[in-house]
What we know:
By secondary structure, this protein is of the alpha+beta class. The chain has helices at 17-26, 58-66, 70-74, 98-101, 112-124, 174-178, 235-243, 246-257, 305-326, 335-364, 368-375, 377-383, 387-396; strands spanning 6-13, 33-36, 53-57, 78-80, 82-87, 93-97, 107-111, 129-132, 136-142, 147-153, 156-167, 183-199, 206-211, 216-221, 227-234, 264-265, 271-280, 284-285, 288-290, 296-297.
Amino acid sequence: MNDAxxxxxxxxxxxxxIGTSLAIALAPLGLNVAVVEAVARQGAGQPSFxxxxxxxxxxTQRMFEAMGLWDEIVAASTPIRSIHVSDKGRFxxxxxxxxEQGVEALGYVVINRVLGAVLQKAMAxxxxxxxxxxxxxxxxxxxxxxxxVAVDTDGTRQTITCDLLVAADGANSQVRAMMGIEAVKSEYxxxxxxxxxxxxxxxxQRAFERFTSQGPLAVLPVADSRxxxxxxxxxxxxxRVLALDDETFLAELQGEFGYRLGEFSxxxxxxxxxxxxxxxxxxxxxxxxxxxxxxxGLHPVSAQGFNLGMRDVAALCDCIADTVRDTSGFDxxxxxxxxxxxxxxxxDQKKLVRFTDSLVKLFGSTRRPLRTLRNIGMLGFDxxxxxxxxxxxxxxxxxxRLPRLSRGxxxx
Length: 412
């Protein structure tokens, strides 16, 4: 171990929305934290804080309330007070309403750029957090006494050490591989095409989840009467769809969605990404842990990927806070803490992976037994006891045991 290296309680690999949120959430504990982010904050290639929209679940809302950030976030967000669920070409639809669930909103939609600005401002004000950006972790040595991390900044290499290394650098996490943790991936054979458009009728505070033959299509309300869309198409058709002119693109999207919001117009810049289910084989290694997409990558159906990652953050903060309170010689990377985190998160992650994967396979299959289930799917959604409530709980991120931040309770 390099005696001259600067030592931190926690080093976070990845300064996107999950990594930055973790740094802010840890602040009340008074720990010495470093965040290492490879892409410059204002760089054109910064993927975390762009024009895409993110649906924040009820549990994520409570987290930001406990962190003191919600007032600023909600001022630039659009509430979702109802979700309309339908299956193209089949009878029936279902509504999930906030009033029925006893909440003021099922969730909120915010533009990533806006959320990112709030998070960056909050992190910049923390004297306990050092941000190394743009910088890249190029080597990791996990030893029982500490983790040693080699960081490259514009060709200059430095070594820092920490009690705990957190990989929050996404589904293709390089730091996860350096930890010696493998991930299994399963391709859906689909791509998500995302963007914004202007509907004839403002969405108001309604979100839509539409199941089609190629995959789910989500339409979310955003500011200025616009709507954000996440359109799942087959991998083989994605390039053709992306190459369409605006008028033809909107016509095809309209054909999949219908006219619940009138005619679509003025589509913005489109982007796409492949849909892959990824699961890390384990969540921890010596003095290291995975959160967010580094631990699990979900299909975007029901918009739960970011929210699941935020519950990772909340659970890790809970485990660390309890260790700070219960031990005199605090060590954020001790084996017992990491094992407790892994036990806690494994159930929630498996449950949500199964939930989203089952929805995709049920509503996307052409096999006769699953087609039969699909034909009664919307009817069952409303009539089978507990189905709609279960979907709503998953949507709001309120299923299972929740950490204190996810319940709106500050760490201190």
